[in-house]
Amino acid sequence: MSGAALGLEIVLVFFLALFLLHRYGDFRKQQRMVLFGTLLAWYLCFLIVFILPLDVSTTIYRQCIEDHEEHLTVSTVSPTNRTGSSGPNPPIPSPCHRPWSYIPEGIMPVFWRVVYWTSQCLTWLLLPFMQSYARSGGFSITGKIKTALIENAIYYGTYLLIFGSLLIYVAVHPDWPYELQTIGITAANTWGLFLLVLLLGYGLVEIPRSYWNASRHGHLLMKTYFKASKLMTEKADAEENLEDVMEEVRKVSESIKYNHPLRKCIDTILRKCPVDYQEKMGRNMDDYEDFDDKQNSYPTEKSLVKLHKQVIYAVQRHNRTRVQWQILLQQAVHLEDVAKNETSLSHQFVHSFQSAEPPGRFSRYVYTPTVEWYWECLLKRWFYRLVSVVLTLFSVAVVWSECTFFSTRPVLSLFAVFIQLAESDYNYLYIEMACFITIFFLCTCVYSTVFRIRVFNYYYLASHHQTDAYSLQFSGMLFCRLTPPLCLNFLGLIHMDSAISHRQKLPTAYTSIMGSMRVLSFIANGFYIYYPMLIVILCIATYFSLGTRCLNLLGFQQFMDDSEMTSDLIDEGKELIRRGESGVKIAEIKATQNVPQTGFCFHREEEEAEDRRRREPTESEKNDHHYSRSAGRTERDCIELLQDAEPLDFNADSLTDDGLEAEASR
After folding, report:
1. CA 318, CA 268: separation in Å to the nearest integer?
2. Among the residues of 256-354, which ranges form H helices?
3. pLDDT in tens, 13-72
4. Residue 485's CB: how many other CB atoms inside 10 A?
5. Which of these, 537, 520, 530, 450, lies nearest to 189 by C-alpha position?
6. Closest CA to 406 of 512, 531, 511
């Protein structure tokens, strides 16, 4: 079993990172360089978290061997043995048993060195460059590389300035006791710990509270209505922005003809546009008109690069809001179904809208309507409350240990107490499980906050393959900067850092590569004293939702139970959900009349494209210059208002065949 656990975890962690990247990224549309960089960053960070418990158990075993050998050296020769005769003492049996996950000596230092320095090169050098490269609107690889280098010139120049200053200082002061490598590692860890405190303080409170709120169906439904109102506003803004950008593309496409040198750039931009816009612009294109016949002002390549960048952003944002609206509508329908079925006496879960796909074996034999009712209406809420209580206890233990991990006599850190009890019995399986659960909870609090936060539209991790390249790579940068200080903090909590435990113990292989948390005394004497206090303050601020209240005061609407604006947005969202449900009912009615449908969907893209084609102006209108986008938008708004004007008391069972035909035709 030597090294087998290490190899198994390396494979499992790779598939975990690949699964998360598939959930948030898009393997078919995004660049391979973006996907590879993000996958490598996530994989290395998850690898550190999963392998560190094995390093701890191996270090405890090596420490046991060393203590036993030292004890044998002291008691090898004695003047008299226990029987009173002179001579050596009988051999003492070794209490050390090799753990099942033991990693041979010499493997872990090399492993940690490769993983750590690869992740640091990614987060400080490669990923910032790849961010600018992926976001660039250039039409060639050379142009994108040039843009990325220009955007990161200040970024890289700052590194060179700091490194040059340290190099000069070391040359002037040869008695400087620290190496440049030690200074660099400590500076990176200190920066990471500043950010780690903010994210950890938020996650320790918000994660247990989110599970508790998930058990409150009424609260969850109101929050879904609130999200629907905000998302519809964002969706409308994204659609308007897309139309503005497409109008600009249309003008540029009509001005630059087939034999213009920049026509290949226009073709590249058109390939990034939605299909219906591509068809419309293709019909409006006159390939037989030479661009030299008219003295028009043509756009420059620089302006086309800017337009290309705007098209990529507008299309991605439009697709993301459209998919998010579909998902949110499904969630709202499900929560409304749960609220309706809670009062059901038949204990059979009834869905408002049946899926077009036939039920599988699991739904027919295991997850039956009766089982679904007991789970959704009865057991699920209690399960979430139990999980919330367990996570709350973990959070309290983490906060207490963060405030007391520097105390060694007596040992006040709860995690250090548990590990030392298991260490006295050499229960390696318990040590690894305790270490894994602890560090997994810390990483969940930190990483989940990274997935939750949103910085306007520049950084936002959206599931269902809707995250853009910039956000994916930015998350990889955050993971690489947060994971090393998080692991050092974990080793401090369990007193495996000799600088904190003040015991002569073998350091872990991770600590021997990374260094101690207190390498530089002028940083440790100030920063590590106030660190636990800041954790407590941030947890209190998160519990009372001070950040949410501040954002609400600044004009960024947040969900608050005691806010009048929240109530208005809830009512608006409820009306939007009702309109979406009416659209689904119309789709089901058409399905009963053998009208081709694409399953359970809320946006029929083919019908929308056909509707836009019907609103296309004729050639005579184009030649007379009577076609304007404002007129088209007014007509589209009228059609959307007619589509939304559904009856309030709709009941499919009460309709006759004539009524069905009239409703479908309308």
Report:
1. 19
2. 263-271, 275-283, 301-341
3. 999 999 999 999 989 888 888 999 999 999 999 999 999 999 999 998 888 888 777 767
4. 21
5. 520
6. 531
Helix orientation angle between 564-592 and 657-665, rounded to the nearest 10 degrees? 120
Residue 510 three-state SS? helix
520: left (phi over 0), alpha (psi -120 to 50) or beta: beta
Closest CA to 267 of 317, 319, 311, 316: 311
With beta carbons less than 8 A apart as the criterion, state whether 138 and 310 touch: no
Alpha helices in 342-457, H assignment, sequence order? 361, 369-374, 380-404, 414-425, 428-452
Kindly list the domain boundaries of the chain, sorted by start residue: 2-74+96-135+178-214+363-518, 219-281+300-346
Q: How far apart are alpha carbons 112 and 235 in whole angstroms?
A: 45
> How far apart are the C-alpha atoms of 385 and 368, rounded to whole Å?
24
CB 495 within 8 A of CB 415: no
- Position 591: which residue type? A
Nearest one of 524, 503, 492 to 416, comparing CA atoms: 492
In which region does residue 357 sit, left (phi positive, over 0), alpha (psi from -120 to 50) or beta (all else)? beta
Burial label, 292 (beta-carbon count in 10 A; 0-12, 13-18, 19+):
exposed
Contact 449, 442 (CB under 8 A): no
Q: Is the peptide bond before 410 cis (omega within 30 degrees of 0)?
A: yes
Of residues 359 and 327, more confidence is placed in 327
CA distance 540 to 534: 10
Pick the most confident of 84-93, 133-142, 291-300, 623-632: 133-142
- Name the band, by pLDDT with cuts 50, 70 and 90, for residue 549: confident
Residue range 503-540, pLDDT digits in tens: 677 888 898 887 655 555 555 555 665 676 788 999 99
Mean pLDDT of 639-660: 38
How deeply is 619 buried, as exposed, middle or buried, from its count of CB atoms within 10 A (0-12, 13-18, 19+)?
Answer: exposed
